[in-house]
Structures are given as C-alpha cells and as structure tokens.
Amino acid sequence: MIDVRHGVPVWHAPAHGPELATEQDAADLVGATYGLGADVIVVPVERFPARFFDMRAKLIGHFFSKIVQYGFRLVVLGDVRRHVEASTVFRDVVRESNRGKDVWFVADLAELDTRLAAGR
C-alpha cells in the first residue's frame, strides 16, 4: 500500500507475511515497490525474526544496506525496546540510525509523521 505522508510517498509492507532477514528479502521488498514511486519503505517489526536483531548475525546491516543501495529510506515500525534492552550494540544502531535520514526505527505512524514533517 502506498500513501503520501507530508509529501513523501510511503510504501507499507503488509503486517503479515514471510519473515524478512536477508539481502534477498530486502531486494524483494524493493521489487514490490517497483513503479509505485515510493521513497520510503515501512516494515512492521513483526516481520523480522529475533535473529535479525542479533548483531552477531550481521543480517541487519546487509538488509539495511540493500534497501539504501536502491535509493530508498527504510522505516522499521513498532516496538524494539526488548531488543534494545538485550543489546547495547543494537541500541547504538537504533540511536545512530535515527540520527540519519536513511533508516529509522519508529514506534508508530504518529512518530513517522513527526519525523517526515520535520524533514520538509
């Protein structure tokens, strides 16, 4: 589903579907948006398996890089507190990502709207 939020075309991955974790999964998401004009891909946190947030697995970096490489911004939508509490490295990833413009972790759509509005 595509919608425009604060002038930015946003594609929302379905809340239900196969787990997402690999570079190929990221490429498949990009493919799903082909021709739709999206700038931002929003993925519900529930689509990622727990191992995705284990920084030793190195899945998160490869996944994020693939999305950004194709010129999209990525938003992980939902509560990641338990992963942040379990890993100082992941906490740092969230903090640094949210400082940038390519990958954000947001709790809900209201927070996404606030971030997009601030970026205009």
What does this structure look like?
The protein has helices spanning 23-32, 59-69, 81-86, 88-99, 109-118; strands spanning 2-5, 8-12, 40-44, 73-77, 103-106. By secondary structure, the protein is an alpha/beta fold. The protein has a single domain, classed as Transcription Regulator spoIIAA (2-Layer Sandwich). The protein has a five-stranded mixed sheet. Strand 1 (2-5) and strand 2 form a beta hairpin. Helix 1 (23-32) runs parallel beside helix 2. The protein starts with a strand and ends with a helix. 29% of the residues are buried. It comes from Amycolatopsis vastitatis. Residues 6-116 form the DUF4180 domain. Keywords: Hydrolase. GO terms for molecular function: hydrolase activity.
Task: Map the helices and strands.
Elements: E1 2-5, E2 8-12, H1 23-32, E3 40-44, H2 59-69, E4 73-77, H3 81-86, H4 88-99, E5 103-106, H5 109-118
Parallel strand pairs: 2-3, 3-4, 4-5
Antiparallel strand pairs: 1-2
Overall structural domain count: 1
Order of helices and strands: EEHEHEHHEH
Helix content: 40-55%
User: What would you report as the Rg, rounded to the nearest angstrom?
Assistant: 13 Å
Instruction: Give the strand content.
Output: 15-25%
Outline, from the CA principal axes? globular
CATH topology: Transcription Regulator spoIIAA
Task: Point out poorly predicted stretches.
Answer: none
| Content-based structural category | alpha/beta
Give the biggest sheet. Answer: 5 strands, mixed
Keywords: Hydrolase
InterPro entries: DUF4180 (IPR025438)
Pfam families: DUF4180 (PF13788)
Protein name: Alpha/beta hydrolase
